[in-house]
Amino acid sequence: xxxxxxxxxxxxxxxxxxxxxxxxxxxxxxxxxxxxxxxxxxxxxxxxxxxxxxxxxxxxxxxxxxxxxxxxxxxxxxxxxxxxxxxxxxxxxxxxxxxxxxxxxxxxxxxxxxxxxxxxxxxxxxxxxxxxxxxxxxxxxxxxxxxxxxxxxxxxxxxxxxxxxxxxxxxxxxxxxxxxxxxxxxxxxxxxxxxxxxxxxxxxxxxxxxxxxxxxxxxxxxxxxxxxxxxxxxxxxxxxxxxxxxxxxxxxxxxxxxxxxxxxxxxxxxxxxxxxxx
Length: 278
Prior knowledge:
- It is built from 6 helices and 4 strands, in the order ααβαβββααα.
- It is an alpha+beta fold and 278 residues long.
- Strands 1-4-3-2 form a 4-stranded antiparallel beta sheet.
- β3 (125-133) and β4 (136-144) form a beta hairpin.
- α1 runs parallel beside α3.
């Protein structure tokens, strides 16, 4: 089964399936974008609360014991380091809405020194927050998974699902719609000038069945008209040629040779006209 021209049913069905898929993806992206704001704000609040708690522990711990405190707080996604001095901040990226909410939630006494999430990456993002405690410079390193990266996997899954749905729609349309209709077209084409009723394909839809029924009624009317035409021509041939034959016989038997010759010419012209009509 070929794909047909630009206006074929299969191409239109594919365009419809693709349009529905793109619309669903657009709606999904909109829902994800709306849902990212509270999730991003929640992540920023968690990072800020953890940083503030760490600074409070440093303030309540004696200076000689802070190194041991930093070692005890070390986890897979958290690290507390003492810096020899202040470090330049450099250029950082604060993606919204996490960045502004994080800066606001940290408050005075903190400075974000690194927050550059990589686009299209599933790796956790490193967040560096510097603070001063009684003249000492400390750095808090956290590794967090921004919601946008977490949502990326869902978006890819939706895209794959959309691609599968488009393929399934095309195959379903080919099997249930295009193939039975193509079979009907093939049978009609094979008939040529002689129309005969068709059998409805078993897998045809209700629309295709109605189309076949309409064609069958048309074929029956054409066959009936052809039969009536044959009967009419047979009757006309008999009704016209019989009187002509009697007239020819009478001319030959009852007319003089001169009149018969002239009448035969005229009679031949009439018979020629009747033959052309038939």
